[in-house]
């Protein structure tokens, strides 16, 4: 696939047909891979004699045949233009979520379409919001499928963030194109090698957290599922109590906290670490800002709880876990932090907007955009004081021009506008203000649980109307693909040529 813009000549009808075939070819390859992944929960179902779940095999065969048929169709020398990559990216995520919906409909938990698509979209975008109650009693095959979707979605997000979004200047992310290009040019000769290296790091981190969960006393199945959804900053658990099921084991809570942070750091820096280059991980501007923010937030919230009478160690452990979970958009919870006091609702609502680092599995606005906003504010103040001053702004030793700052401002504007629109739409389904606004912010930021009694850490999204779920499905998709990638498809000029 080429990401080059190509010439300004219009495509001929034949070229358009070839482009459509190429899009379907990519979707077919993705469906074939997901179909193969579906064999793992099928094997689990056979081992555990979960006969109702054997439908997975039928779905896997159908998906694989259709996927291979689409993938093997001839496309000639067709190449996608840069603008068509927006469509390809969105189409792949929608197709993957729709296929992932089928097991939730035709096997336990036998959800209706809107609920099943919500669950699948939440999984594939690593949001972590769920419509399923009674997780403790579900077949192991279902729990494994949910976790696998989140794990696969996590690595897909990293590859997309490093390879596609920077080139398309989505919300200032072009700053990190140079980083990936430098890496591929210096010690990663081809971009495919970079993807393999990211996959290797992703697997190493997953194995490490699974091993530590086993050491801390989890069963092998719990360790596998929670390991995949921790490093993917995804948040699906095997229990209705979420990670609160293990809240009485500090080792597990601390391990989860550390690896959620690990999943929210740029994976490119891990690759450099494996190559013996230790300095970038400690000196990266984005990483330092991210870790510093987490430490400040954890200390302040812990102090508030201690003042209110909670024991220091217990307050620190659970505050760290829940703050990191929300900021990294993982969505786990060891307890209902809505019960910490009315102040906590406001604090955790603010934390929903932060996010992790770019090039990680975390969602949200990302730390680097807050840093760019600070640069922009500093520039505005300087120009007000010294109107004739000309200064060059830099970020991580790279020049930040007005185009990139404008891209970032446009992204932030659309981010908050989308939350406002989704919240307004949710209010039409008779949801209260806190549920509507936190649900919208959680979906766009891919955080997981919202706030309040209905969709808070102790609740889920099952009681929402089908139309509300569809709104949140769109919000999760748009938020995961950095807003502009999806919204540009609704622009009338996009389809003119």
In words, what does this structure look like?
The chain has a domain at 1-109. The chain contains 20 helices and 2 strands. The chain has helices at residues 13-37, 39-47, 55-71, 82-106, 113-124, 140-163, 177-186, 191-215, 220-231, 250-263, 267-274, 279-283, 285-307, 312-327, 342-351, 367-385, 402-427, 433-445, 466-480, 484-487, and strands at residues 394-395, 398-399. The two termini are 20 Å apart. Residues 1-14 and 177-189 have low confidence and may be disordered.
Task: Please supply descriptive tags for the structure shown above.
20 helices, disordered N terminus, single chain, 497 residues, mainly alpha
What does this entry show, briefly?
The chain is built from 20 helices and two strands. It is mainly alpha-helical and 497 residues long. It has a domain at 1-109.
As a percent range, the share of strand residues is under 5%
Task: Describe the largest sheet.
Answer: 2 strands, antiparallel
Computed over alpha carbons, the radius of gyration is 22 Å
Roughly how much helix do the residues carry, as a percent range? 55-70%
